[in-house]
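Schema walk-through. Below, the input block comes first and the output block second. Nothing else is stored per chain. Lengths vary across the set, and this one has 297 residues.
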Amino acid sequence: MLKSCSHSPARAGEERGGRVRGTVLALCAVIGVVSSQSASAQLLVDPLEVTMITAGTNRVSASFTLANTSDEVVQASITRSDWDRIENGDNRFLPMGSSGTSCGAMLSVSPLSIRVEPHTSRIVRLAIQTAAPVTKECWDIFFVEEVPRRASAKGNSLQYIFRTGVKVYVAPSGLSRDGAVENMAVEDVPVTPATSSTTPVKGVANAPLATKRQISVRFHNTGAMHLIARGRLEFRRLDNTLAMQVPIADFPTLPGATRKVSVDVPAGLAPGDYVVLALIDFGGAELVAGQIDFQAK
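--- output ---
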């Protein structure tokens, strides 16, 4: 019996300063009946996000590092893919050259296969060299995939293949950075059974399902460059005094894209009528804002 399985990331975390939480895909092949054992990637990849600013037709270079934290040699291959991000923040990985946003032949990576000795590191180099100036931002993702070692034990086994994604953005200098809050809404969303105190009762029709209230904010990147935004929700009484404040964690948005961010209504908010302000900082000259009326019960 041969089975295959994969786990795609819910999203790739990103933050300012170029350091990000990785996009890690765990792929596994299962032969026969197995007992699962814990596994972890042996290569640490840093950074996981690279932005390359072009200068006319000049060659521009950058790099990322693979560090082998194990006591054994690790062999890795490097492949390339297109990607984009849907409104809720999940990444989609697409065939190379299919999205229209890839950097194409002007962006190269070397080497494509690499051997990393125990407790050492190797550098993977990125380069841009074009015959014409770059006029808009493009982006790709490079996957570092650890080549699995042949299992030493006989019989059934469970094998994990770890793949880490490095997002690479290429852009000319001076691209516009702009954004707007396009919409806000109050939403009642189901609570998963693991965290629900009133989960459906088996065999009882129309059993209640717990919900929680959230404020959703739709942020539109109207500029020409990818943005990392953050912000806060302010719950203000009708006399404009501040009742409560909730942070909005960092979230990335590609140029031209809309991102929906949902924030739980804070516990302890006194019943009454409020105006909820969303204040978003995307690194531009000023914050952008939106507002919605809200009634706490």
